[in-house]
Amino acid sequence: IGEPEIPEIAQLAHDHNLPLVEDLGSGAMISTDQLAPIEHEPTPQECL
């Protein structure tokens, strides 16, 4: 069992004229790596 990567899901959504929203986790606009003892979560810049 695999998990598709975001670019694959984005292409599928685009092909069917559907919006795609990616959950970034904490919603932080900056890196939380040095601010909080949580697992790395992607920033908006990393996702775009």
Essential attributes:
single chain; 48 residues; mainly alpha; 0% strand
Task: Please characterize this protein's 3D structure.
It is elongated, with a radius of gyration of 13 Å. With 48 residues, it is an all-alpha fold. The chain has one domain (1-48). The two termini are 27 Å apart. It has helices at 6-15, 44-47. The mean pLDDT is 86.
| Class computed from helices, strands and strand pairing | mainly alpha
The percent range for helix content is 25-40%
- Which radius of gyration do the C-alpha atoms yield? 13 Å
**Could you tell me the strand content as a percent range?**
under 5%
Q: In total, how many domains does the architecture comprise? A: 1
Helix count equals 2
How widely separated are the two ends? 27 Å
Order of helices and strands: HH
